[in-house]
Design brief:
By secondary structure, the protein is α+β, with helices and mostly antiparallel strands. It contains 7 helices and 14 strands.
Length: about 300
Amino acid sequence: EPNSSKASVIKVGREPEDLGWRIQVGNAVGVIGVGDLQINVLPKIGENHFNYIAGMAINPSRLRFGQDNWGVAQDSAFLPAVWNAFIESLTTTLRADLHHEYVETSDDPPYVRGRLDIRRVVINLARGQMNFPAKFDELSSDNSVNRVLRAAAEYVSRAASSFVSRNGELDRGVYEALSARAAESAYQLLEAGPLRTGDLDAELPRLAVHQLRAVNLARHVLSGIGRSLQVGDTKVTCFLQPTPDLIEDGVRALLDAKLGEGISVKKKRRAAARLDFNPDLVIEVDNEPSDEPNATGDVKYRI
């Protein structure tokens, strides 16, 4: 919103002497789509350094996804955030309605239905059995769309659990909750059956918007496609990742891992000279009698 005084991640404005628009993105990186324009918002530190820190700290629940498709390069960065976006989309689909297709079914009902198997009907009647073997079309949720959704949900459940064990205490609750949600979603899709050969490459039928978004993200999950901040040829939904907490969490996780056992790095409330403050880094040695930290610090990142 131009010249708005409201708090906003993106601010757009212009001065009378400006030939174009001024765009300010507050503490976030990602991709923004506006009409035919794609804006890639890069971190102010080197992207390799940023991705290294972000890989230790990405909290998928903080990512903001949009609805439009834009082209970026593939990368393993932001993969957990893609998992979360998929589960959010899948939850919407499960609440609304799954995709159903007609499939040919064979049955032996005690009434006439569909295309009768005359030979078997005559045999049954001769035996005194009132069954009418037939083939008929029936709506089913066991189709390629829902099998892809189920397979992706099962993958996220396993991958999120692995992510927890690989990153120790870092955002443990976030990934445990994500794994549990994914497992619950997969359970609700048991009627869809396991993934079959050709399901990932099958031509998509006409789907509701929420179903199409979920299955596209599911294909990205199963293909291991993350997000990059560079322009590329992989179509993805727009996204923004807030950076302050991301960098703080990443630096804390790196220090905590590199300083070794017996030393913890946390963000904790401290008091000094009757003043309260919240340092980004509070470094403490385990089993030390003093309540005072060995060191405190602040996290900044710059060019």
